[in-house]
Amino acid sequence: MSSKIRLGILGGGGDSLIGVLHRIASAMYDKYQIVGGVFNPVWEENIGFANKIGLPTNRIYKDFDTLIEEEIKLPVNERMQVVSILTPNFLHFPMAKKLLENGFNVICEKPMTTTYEEAKILNQTLKMAQTVFAVTYTYTGYPMIRQMREMIKNGELGKIQKVDAQYYQGWINPVIHDKEKRSTTWRLNPEKSGISCCIGDIGTHAFDMLEYVSGVKIESVLADLNYLYADNKMDIDGTVLLRCSNNVKGVICTSQIATGEENSFIVKIYGDKAGLKWEQENPNYLYLMEDGKPFRVLKPGHAYNSDLSLEGTKLPPGHPEGIFDSMGNIYKGVAKAINKEPYNNGEFPTMVDGVRGMSFIEKAVESHQKGNVWVTIENVN
């Protein structure tokens, strides 16, 4: 029998970009084998997609509950070891909770749940289950983001004094200005997405990233969100001021109506000795800025990079690596945890990251609704 980790997938069928991303990422290091799942709630499309990607159909299930029921009947050395949740947001919590309660490891898309309360319940469930849980804040897998994290941790920027993240997209423009389209899109439906669209979808990436690379904790936020139309219940643009640990200040600017922008995610961290800047659309370049010194560009694959960066680098210097590689690095880290191998705690985002992300979403919305006031992010262990 194959020694690969047996992986099940929920959602991600058809032309889903996130489905392609996870399947390629899971195959990247030869650590996983997809053995089954539920790709679509419509049986014909579900089984048709399994046939299309060449999966045996004996473990393609009609629904999630059947998957759990049938998998736990199998011997431990045959059942799925980990299940990836790629469904719309409102399904994340019930699926993850039931998987944990039945002893499965879980890889979950973000936002982890639709409410902070659900996130806290899931955290307690994980403590009881003692399995592995990862949230796919994908961009933490980039080698130069990991290099950024290690340089800051090693004090190369000195005392951190400002953090800044900008995440601009323009994809929702064709939807938001059409009353019928915006009322039928699940991203703008609170029952399926939770209380936030822009902050929940991309703002949570920025929040997690700033904490991941800088090492500071965001303690309170003041948000000003834009809904654009009175009948639209979900934010599609927003600015959030940040107060962080160690008296660090910062800002997160997010938008899905930044006309012409594709996926412009920019992360900047400034210390009293130097600053670092990274752009997702040019992910192989990490810019090092120091007063009175030439501007420097660091690139992946070179010996001057940290072990964590080099561990996530698959190609020699000069060969571009992208988002598939970033997600692949997260899957690789989860595989180490499942196999009880040593791993760096920066190799994949955890339950705590997911819970804090949910707290950020709710507090940003609360800050806006209370008239743009400061509200506190709760600590979680």
From TrEMBL:
Pfam families assigned: GFO_IDH_MocA, GFO_IDH_MocA_C3
Domain Gfo/Idh/MocA-like oxidoreductase N-terminal, first and last residues per copy: 30-137
InterPro entries (alphabetical): Gfo/Idh/MocA-like_OxRdtase_N, Gfo/Idh/MocA_oxidoreduct, GFO_IDH_MocA-like_dom, NAD(P)-bd_dom_sf
Ranges for domain GFO/IDH/MocA-like oxidoreductase: 145-276
Protein name: Gfo/Idh/MocA family oxidoreductase
